[in-house]
Amino acid sequence: MRTLFHLWLSPFCRKVRLVLHDKHLEFQMKTESIWERRAEFLSINPAGEVPVLVEADGSAVSGSDAICEFLDELHPEPSIVGRGAFVRAEVRRLVYWFDHRFNDEVTENLVGEKIMKRFLGLGEPDSKKVRAGYANIHNHLNYISYLTERRRWLGGDDVSLADITAAAHISTIDYLGDVPWDEHPGAKDWYARIKSRPCFRSLLEDYIPGVPPSKSYADLIVQEYGKNDGLKTVCFRASCITGPNHSGAKLHGFLSYLVKASLRKKKYSIIGYKG
Predict the structure, then answer these.
(1) Conformation bin of residue 123: beta by default, left when phi > 0, alpha when psi is -120 to 50
(2) Residue 53: its pLDDT value, please?
């Protein structure tokens, strides 16, 4: 089985994961702590970067663009780069836009500063860069809205690597709860459509130790299970101190009390603040 060496919040690794799932290809993932510079990994990719895809025969391909086009050539259906010279050129232009301009102006300033610096031991986030990331994301969401007002998807009539690349980057920001969706309904509608595709489910299930997902990102998991599996779903969010001797009282230890009331078919009240 092929193996993908990756990092959870790397948009480039997420892009490859989406393509693998979209093409229904089996693979296993191995988290690679690139800051450790493991000799075994460096023998596969001397650059020491992820993503790296190792095929079952041991051959390796590194770099998200190279991997995605490699997979599309071996498994052309469904095509992710489009059909026709103009469509392919436009898709590749947008892939470059999000992998470079969006990454430099938004992803690095938010995910890079707020999360990756901690893992790499590079100190505290630079507040100026974080503020720049918050400001820059509006321009990119406006651009997504502009494109989807004129096309069904970013690169044209069909989902393509352009949508996958943009969604991979935005999903990392969304995991932190830093996407101002309410101010950009056009981009929000596009994201709702791309995240509802089955290939996106594994990303919604991600949970990075020490970096819990935002409330809105966690809610997406519940919504998608309800939509895709025809289930009536609800998301409860609460905290309590619990343990083997917990009594599960009504106003002390809500989670265990909820389970007790459900098992005994008792009514219970949920008291919240602003809904």
Answers:
(1) left
(2) 98
Kindly tell me the sign of the dihedral angle through the C-alpha atoms of 205, 206, 210, 211.
Answer: negative
pLDDT tens per residue, range 1-30: 999 999 989 999 999 999 999 999 999 999
Q: Do domains 2-74 and 85-229 have the same CATH topology?
A: no
Q: What's the predicted TM-score (pTM) here?
A: 0.79
Nearest to 161 by CA among 216, 249, 235, 83: 83
Give the domain 85-229 fold.
Glutathione S-transferase Yfyf (Class Pi); Chain A, domain 2 (1.20.1050)
Q: Are 224 and 22 in contact (CB under 8 A)?
A: no
Domain at 2-74, CATH class: alpha beta
Per residue in 229-273, pLDDT tens? 677 776 665 555 555 555 556 655 566 677 777 778 877 766 554
Instruction: Quote the tokens at residue 79.
Output: 């095509």
Average pLDDT over residues 216-227: 63
Q: Given 3-state DSSP classes, what are the helix, strand and coil percentages for the chain, each rounded to the nearest 5?
A: 55, 5, 35
